[in-house]
Amino acid sequence: MNLVTNPRRERVDAARNRVKILAAAADIVAAHGVEGLSMAEVAAAAGVGVGTLYRRFGDRSGLAYALIDEREREFQEAFIEGPPPLGPGAGVFARISAFLHALTDRTVEQLDLLLMAETAAPFARFGGAYDGYHAHLSMLVTQARPGADAYVLADALLAPLAAPLLAHRLRGCGVTVERVKAGLDDLLAGFAT
What we know:
It is built from 10 helices and no strands. The radius of gyration is 18 Å and the shape is elongated. The model has no long low-confidence stretch (mean pLDDT 89). The chain is mainly α and 193 residues long. It folds into 2 domains: 52 residues, Arc Repressor Mutant, subunit A, CATH 1.10.10.60; 123 residues, Tetracycline Repressor, domain 2 (Orthogonal Bundle), CATH 1.10.357. GO terms for molecular function: DNA-binding transcription factor activity; transcription cis-regulatory region binding. This is Transcriptional regulator, TetR family. InterPro entries: Homeodomain-like_sf (IPR009057), HTH-type_TetR-like_transc_reg (IPR050109), HTH_TetR (IPR001647). Keywords: DNA-binding.
């Protein structure tokens, strides 16, 4: 089950262009950072027209999401059917903690791309992967605390991992990734009792 998207079957030439475009975009991000990612440069590097890029991805944030997608699919597979404690088979609190720690690492790994994607529109963070994370945490919270408002608690656990907040804390306030994870564990411990 894929929580991000269920892609439609692509034409062979469209699939080939997608691979070229994403490779070119990844190379540009690796060389110049997310700030250097322009639709015109990506189109030129991929050997496609700018119109093709806009039709395919919409804008820079759509391109950012496409770059994020492969890593996102790996992450989803790990928490849905991977080994414990992230995947099934561990205690519920161990699974929630493993999920939050892995999501922290996953967010930090592609922080600039997620920052661009999550701030593209007022509700850009929500839907797709966020809905999958929310559903997963809601299920685990319901197991951990039957009768609790798992829907709201899942949002509370996900809120500290919004890319803009995480970037601000890590880059502007000197908070470490380890401290973020410890804080999430403290938050989790608060409703574990």
